[in-house]
Each structure stands twice: as C-alpha cells, then as structure tokens.
UniProtKB/TrEMBL annotation:
<keyword id="KW-0732">Signal</keyword>
<keyword id="KW-0378">Hydrolase</keyword>
<dbReference type="GO" id="GO:0009253">
    <property type="term" value="P:peptidoglycan catabolic process"/>
</dbReference>
<dbReference type="InterPro" id="IPR050695">
    <property type="entry name" value="N-acetylmuramoyl_amidase_3"/>
</dbReference>
<dbReference type="GO" id="GO:0030288">
    <property type="term" value="C:outer membrane-bounded periplasmic space"/>
</dbReference>
<feature type="compositionally biased region" description="Low complexity">
    <location>
        <begin position="44"/>
        <end position="55"/>
    </location>
</feature>
<protein>
    <recommendedName>
        <fullName>N-acetylmuramoyl-L-alanine amidase</fullName>
        <ecNumber>3.5.1.28</ecNumber>
    </recommendedName>
</protein>
<dbReference type="InterPro" id="IPR002508">
    <property type="entry name" value="MurNAc-LAA_cat"/>
</dbReference>
<dbReference type="Pfam" id="PF11741">
    <property type="entry name" value="AMIN"/>
</dbReference>
<dbReference type="InterPro" id="IPR021731">
    <property type="entry name" value="AMIN_dom"/>
</dbReference>
<feature type="domain" description="MurNAc-LAA">
    <location>
        <begin position="282"/>
        <end position="438"/>
    </location>
</feature>
<feature type="signal peptide">
    <location>
        <begin position="1"/>
        <end position="26"/>
    </location>
</feature>
<feature type="region of interest" description="Disordered">
    <location>
        <begin position="29"/>
        <end position="55"/>
    </location>
</feature>
<dbReference type="Pfam" id="PF01520">
    <property type="entry name" value="Amidase_3"/>
</dbReference>
<dbReference type="GO" id="GO:0008745">
    <property type="term" value="F:N-acetylmuramoyl-L-alanine amidase activity"/>
</dbReference>
C-alpha cells in the first residue's frame, strides 16, 4: 500500500463533476461534490472518484486544480492492461502527475481519457493487445494542448476508479483507470453528453484554420484537408508509415505550389499532427467561403482483398458507386468515432443535406473537378483502374463548396508506398493537382458549366 499512501499524501483533493444526463450543451454543471482526503483516513485511492452516476470523472493533480508547477508537456512512458472480463485496469506511467478526465461513450462502447499536452513515447503495438474488457486503445493529440486516449470496450463498462499516483522514489507518476463490467442500462445512465465528449468548445477554437474571410482579397480560397491527424492515424497498410503523416506532407507541398502561383488563398484544415472532427473540416470550408475543398487521403486494402494500386478521386453521392467506394467511405467516416467524438450532436449542415439547386450545382462542379484531377494525375503517375467513384463521405458534405476526396494510392502496395513517401513524387503530384485546379477555375471562369449553363466565376472574382 506504499503507493496508495504516497498518493494521498500528495494528492489531497479529488473533485468529481456530476453531470446531469442531458444537461445543456457546453455547460458543465458546477461541482456538486468535492471530497477532501486526509492521508490518515485513507490508504487507498480516493473514494470520491467512485461516486455514481458520474458521467465524467475529473481528477486534478493538485488540490488547487492545477497540474503542478512549471513543466511543459508530460510524457507517457508506458501503458499496460491487467485484469479480466470482470475488471480491467489500465495503468499509464507518466513523467509527472497530470490532471485528467475520464468518461464513457456509446455506439460503440468506448472509454475516453482526456489529458493535457502529453507526448506518448511507448510503442504503438502495445495498444493493440486485447486484455480483459479492453479490445484495443489508441492515443494522440486531440486539439492544441490536449491529448486523448480512447479505449474500445466490447461490452458496457463502468469507470470504477480513476486516479493519479504521484511519482515516488524511482517510480514514475501513474494514472490508474479501473473498468468493471456493467449492464447496458447502467452504462446508458452514465454516458457523457456530446459536449463533454467534444472536450469543451476550445477543442475547436484552437484552430487557426477557422479564420474566415480576408476582406479585399479577390483570390479564390482553396481549402486543403489532410485526412486524420493526432489520435486518428488513418491507415498504415501494415507499414510503419501512418496515413496522417503522408497526407500532411502532400498537403504542404500542394499548398506551396498553389501559393507560388499567387492565384489562390490556401487554408489548411490542419497543419500539424492534431485531430480535427469531420464536421469541423466541413465548417472550415464553409466559413472560409471556399471555392474548392480537397480532402487528401491514402487507402489500404487488407491482404486478403488482393492488390490494388494508384490514385482515385471520390465525390459525394447518396449511394456508393460500387462496393469499393462504400467500404472506403465507411472507413473514412469512422474518424470521429476513432477519436471519441459523439456524432449525435452534429448540426444540420453535416447530418442532413437539402439536395436543392445550389447543391446540384456544387455536385456538378465537384464532378467536373474530379474528372479534371484524374486527368492531371494520370500524367503524374499511376491512377486506379477505375479512378472516379462516389459515396457518402461526411467530409464532402459542404453543400455550397465543390468538394472531392483524393486517395493518393494504396499504402498496402509496396510500390505505391514507396512513391508516396518520396519527395520527388510529392512534388510531381502537387504539380499535377495544381494544374488541375488551374484548369478547373479556367473552365469555370469561361462560363462552361457541366450542365451547359452560364456559371459564376469563383468566389471573390
Ligand atoms: Zn483516410
């Protein structure tokens, strides 16, 4: 019990935020319980952390709620699971104590740990080992200054204990999370609200990409959307490379080329390794009155699904053009779920689209650009044997912004992967994409619409 004593000596207060189910969005209720701990009364973890029904457990590292004095980000050095199907414990070794929040989400069942800026230095492979109630977990940046860990659980669980042990002697600080098996009804009564899951509005406000119009700048705005990021690595295609890094590099190369031309203002939905929700990517396009939205990804096939190579360009449609497109949209649409974002609160602009006239025009322009882009990419390298497809991609749902999603190639193909990780190829592809964007705007400016009608020049012209 030595560690337990050490814990209570240093960590004296645990505040438990009780959130009424269905409480107003974005408004955390004031703490209704704050238990002070006296080392003489307890040698175990704080009982206050076990109060039920708690939607979210908020654990401060210090009695004043601060995370401790003067220290940049903490490092997570190791993580491990212990226990069985009845009770499973996650232990994370940390370079110092941190403040954290733990809560659960349904559909599918997940447990979320929100942390401050933590750098994870242990092996990713560890997170894929199934143990007890935890099927897998992942971790990474969730927003500027915020990290997150998401645990997939196969069945309903309750957070039984969640606490921090301060470092002592040669032992690191430890975050301990105990999950116990529960039933679906109890789980439902403690699940966090969507606002809780989002981790407060600042998860979004931290983005410079939400900057809106620049008055007097006549250039068309192009929003580049490197897929995934932070806690959501995208696919790896069984390689050591992550999709999120490859697509960010290509987006940077394309941004540089476009800006060189002087004809466009480029906005990136992310310019670092951080998570951005799909709805937020759509909002960035709309808030910037983008004339074009290009989402950049890389695909992968399971080894049992054969081999495929080359780039494909996708547009939005109600029904998928083929089973391959349906599979891909389903996988790309999981990004929010992977990062532990609740989808139930998405606004109308994402969840339901009115297929009105404006939307039809947008659809036509999206199709025009998709064709132009495939043409240009054929010149730059390999394209898929049927490179134009469509499906219900959530990220393409800005109803007034022509939008396409490019899959640069297959990370499951050794040849494609070699290309996608080379500087020369990146430069070539960025050049081809810039040519396609030039062609697209030239066609639009000439008034040649795909419907045959006279169309408007790009925004700002
Ligand atoms: Zn992707």
């Amino acid at each position: 019990m030595r560690r337990g004593v050490a814990f209570c000596r240093v960590l004296c207060a645990v505040s438990v935020l009780l959130l009424a189910p269905g409480s107003a969005l974005g408004q955390a209720q004031p703490p209704v319980q704050s238990a002070a701990h006296d080392a003489s009364q307890s040698s175990g973890p704080p009982a206050g952390a076990l109060a039920q029904p708690a939607a979210a457990l908020h654990v401060s590292a210090r009695p004043d709620g601060s995370a401790g004095a003067g220290q940049g980000g903490a490092r997570a050095i190791d993580a491990r699971l212990a226990g069985d199907q009845q009770r499973t414990r996650l232990i994370i070794d940390l370079s110092r104590s941190v403040e954290f929040r733990a809560f659960t989400l349904a559909n599918p069942y997940r447990v979320i740990l929100d942390l401050p800026d933590v750098t994870f230095t242990f092996e990713t492979r560890k997170a894929l080992t199934r143990r007890g109630l935890v099927a897998a977990y992942r971790y990474g940046t969730f927003a500027p200054g915020k990290s997150r860990m998401v645990l997939d659980v196969a069945e309903p669980v309750a957070i039984d204990k969640a606490f921090i042990l301060d470092p002592v002697d040669d032992q690191p600080a430890r975050l301990v999370l105990d999950l116990v098996k529960t039933d679906a009804a109890s789980f439902a009564s403690t699940v966090a609200t969507a606002a809780e899951a989002r981790g407060a509005p600042s998860a979004i406000a931290g983005h410079d990409a939400t900057l809106t119009e620049t008055p007097g700048d006549p250039r068309a705005v192009i929003v580049l959307d490197p897929g995934h990021g932070g806690i959501d690595s995208g696919t790896t295609g069984a390689s050591t490379f992550a999709e999120k890094n490859i697509v960010l590099e290509v987006a940077f190369a394309l941004k540089a080329k476009l800006e060189q031309s002087g004809r466009y203002r480029v906005v990136m939905t992310r310019s670092s390794d951080t998570f951005v929700a799909l709805g937020e990517r759509v909002r960035i396009a709309r808030n910037n009155r983008a004339a074009l939205f290009v989402s950049i990804h890389a695909d992968a096939l399971a080894s049992t699904d054969g081999q495929a190579r080359g780039a494909s360009v996708y547009t939005l449609s109600d029904t998928a053009s083929d089973s391959e497109a349906a599979r891909l949209a389903e996988s790309e649409n999981k990004a929010d779920l992977i990062a532990g974002v609740d989808l139930s609160e998405e606004s109308d602009e994402v969840a339901g689209i009115l297929f009105d006239l404006a939307h039809r025009e947008t659809k036509n322009f999206s199709a025009l650009f998709a064709r132009t882009l495939v043409g240009a990419m054929k010149n730059a390298g390999k394209v898929h044997k049927s490179p134009l497809k469509s499906a219900g991609f959530r990220v393409l749902k800005a109803h007034d912004v022509p939008s396409v999603l490019v899959e640069l190639g297959y990370m499951s193909s050794r040849e494609d992967l070699k290309l996608m990780t080379s500087d020369a190829w990146r430069g070539k592809v960025a050049g081809a994409m810039t040519d396609a964007i030039d062609d697209f705007f030239a066609t639009r400016a000439a008034g040649v619409g795909v419907t045959g009608s006279i169309v408007q020049a790009p925004a700002g012209k």
